[in-house]
Design a protein that fits this description.
globular, 4-stranded antiparallel sheet, 6-stranded mixed sheet, 29% strand, 10 helices, 12 strands, Rossmann fold, 35% helix, alpha/beta
């Protein structure tokens, strides 16, 4: 019997033009069936972390999926194993939602099989955007493009799924829909890492949460243990109260800045 899917991240470093963006990021092993939320203030390196794992920026260190070195994968190997959703799709593309999803599935939108179309349409319908399948991406709203980007990220069935702020432009109903899809993917045996700004949403859906701050991992663990008044003051520089709902999940109430000078210095 094969061992469960595992992602290892050790001493991950990324620099842009000589400026360090991630400084020796290490995490406990991540396992199949887990949805990991990645949170932190603006500029903490969350998007860069996902891009490094996806092989979209140069990085050093150790990133291994089932013992295989992700940082050395070819483009085709990466496409096979990693589904990546960026913060936004290009706004000027004339591909339809269906064509873009087929391109993500097969590498191009031409010469696809009927079974490919069925698979792509099933994913599109599951995300609630079936009526948009034949519309060009440039005609869509920001929220609709996010859902189209999610379809492209998950259509291959990759074992590792990376979602960069997938709910930032969505209303409450579509936020639930996206997070429910992310949870479903994890429950099917994938590893799903989601960048979120909403800690309450992270606590509702994630098995564990990683907090990035000042280019490093500040804390990691289950949301109920990690999210605290002290964490919010140290990382986000706010006075806040963490309370727990009847299901034992934390939610956050922000009362104001902990220090106006500190808040301004982080922007």
């Amino acid at each position: 019997m094969s061992s469960p899917l595992t992602l290892q991240v050790r001493d991950l470093k990324v620099s842009y033009n000589g400026r360090e963006v991630l400084n020796r990021i290490s995490l406990p092993d991540l396992h199949a069936g887990e949805l990991i939320a990645l949170a932190g203030p603006n500029g903490a390196g969350k998007s860069t972390f996902l891009k490094a794992i996806a092989g979209l920026v140069h990085a050093t260190g150790c990133v291994r999926l089932d013992g295989r070195d992700c940082l050395r994968w070819s483009a085709s190997e990466r496409a096979q194993h990693v589904g990546f959703m960026p913060q936004a799709l290009p706004e000027d593309t004339r591909l339809t939602v269906l064509e873009a999803t087929l391109a993500a599935l097969r590498g191009n939108a031409a010469g696809v099989r009927r079974q490919d179309e069925i698979q792509a349409l099933q994913v599109i319908d599951r995300l609630g955007i079936g009526e948009l399948a034949l519309r060009p991406l440039f005609e869509l709203s920001g929220g609709q493009r996010q859902l189209a980007a999610l379809a492209q990220a998950v259509v291959r069935g990759s074992p590792l799924v990376l979602l960069d702020e997938p709910v930032s432009a969505l209303d409450l109903a579509h936020q639930w829909q996206v997070m429910n899809e992310a949870r479903r993917l994890a429950d099917e045996g994938r590893i799903v890492i989601v960048v979120l700004h909403d800690l309450t949403l992270a606590a509702q859906w994630a098995n564990r949460i990683a907090i990035l701050n000042e280019r490093q991992v500040h804390s990691f663990g289950c949301p109920a243990e990690v999210i605290s008044d002290q964490l919010l003051q140290e990382v986000w520089c706010v006075r806040a109260r963490v309370r727990f709902c009847e299901q034992g999940r934390p939610y956050v109430l922000v009362d104001g800045p902990a220090s106006q000078s500190r808040v301004c210095s982080t922007l």
